[in-house]
Specification:
The protein is globular and about 55 Å long. The N and C termini lie far apart (41 Å). By secondary structure, the protein is an alpha/beta fold. Helix 1 packs parallel to helix 3 and helix 4 runs parallel beside helix 5. It has one domain: Nitrilase/N-carbamoyl-D-aminoacid amidohydrolase (4-Layer Sandwich).
């Protein structure tokens, strides 16, 4: 069995160091193989503009935040997927990073920017792909990617057993929609959301919490409360995600007819 979970919390805007310490302190008691953290877990979400984002974003290759998370992974012998404000040359991405005991393993940059993110972040430019973590194939997506079924399906076609989904959700639809994503692809998914209200001079947003772990066929294994910290880990059976039969005669991937779906790519 593979032990997967999330840590839901309420980051403080711009307080990278305190947010990092909060995560490290919470996860030092976690017994897991992989834990998912929220979107933009260390910077907070409501950037005033691109200049403010630039002042807080980090290059993962030289980031002391990543160094601390790597040390935590080494100490606890687990892996992390975390949201991250990534600086890469002159671009800034809303990213998800896969980190293990020996450092950064993979990066995903959010393809579908939500609302005011378009004024600050560059659009993601990396392909959807999976990484192997202790024999489990892990794919990453971020927050608003949930509404585009092509994302979860592309990760499934790349072999994903588990979709890791850092989020800062403000709409109320995602948790229910992700049960459908897991049914239509027969995969596991962990949505790690934040909670609380972020008040800035230019805006205020409230986040929905209710992080969750969903099994193939859309069964919710656990859903967090809406307004408090929650660390939860559950064992999953990877073989459930590798059997794509909905019935004895229906394989969800083998029964596809891509020749009739060309409009999706035009």
């Amino acid at each position: 069995m593979f032990r997967v979970g999330y840590y839901q919390f309420c980051p403080s805007f711009g307080q990278v160091g305190p947010n990092l310490r909060r995560v490290v302190d919470a996860l030092r008691r976690a017994d897991a193989d992989l834990i998912v953290l929220p979107e933009l877990a260390f910077t907070g979400y409501c950037f005033r503009d691109r200049d403010e984002l630039a002042s807080l974003a980090e290059d993962p290759r030289t980031s002391t935040t990543i160094d601390a998370l790597t040390a935590l992974c080494h100490e606890r012998e687990f892996y992390l997927v975390t949201g991250f404000a990534e600086r890469h040359a002159d671009k800034y991405f809303n990213s998800a990073l896969l980190i293990g005991p020996h450092g950064l393993l993979d990066t995903y940059r959010k393809l579908h920017l939500f609302d005011t993110e378009k004024a600050c972040f560059d659009r993601g430019d990396l392909p959807l792909r999976t990484s192997s973590v202790r024999g489990l194939n892990v794919g990453m997506m971020i927050c608003f990617d949930w509404i585009f079924p092509e994302v979860a399906r592309s990760l499934t076609l790349s072999g994903a057993d588990l979709i890791c989904h850092p989020a800062n959700l403000v709409l109320t639809y995602c948790q229910q929609a992700m049960t459908v994503r897991c049914l239509e692809n027969l995969v596991f998914a962990v949505t790690a959301n934040r909670y609380g209200t972020e008040t800035r001079p230019h805006t205020e947003l409230s986040f929905t919490g209710q992080s969750q772990i969903v099994a193939p066929r859309g069964k919710v294994l656990h859903r967090a409360p809406a307004e408090r910290d929650d660390l939860y880990v559950v064992p999953i059976d990877v073989e459930q995600a590798r059997d794509k039969h909905l019935t004895d005669r229906n394989d969800l991937l083998a029964d596809r007819r891509p020749a009739f779906y060309r409009e999706l790519c035009e």
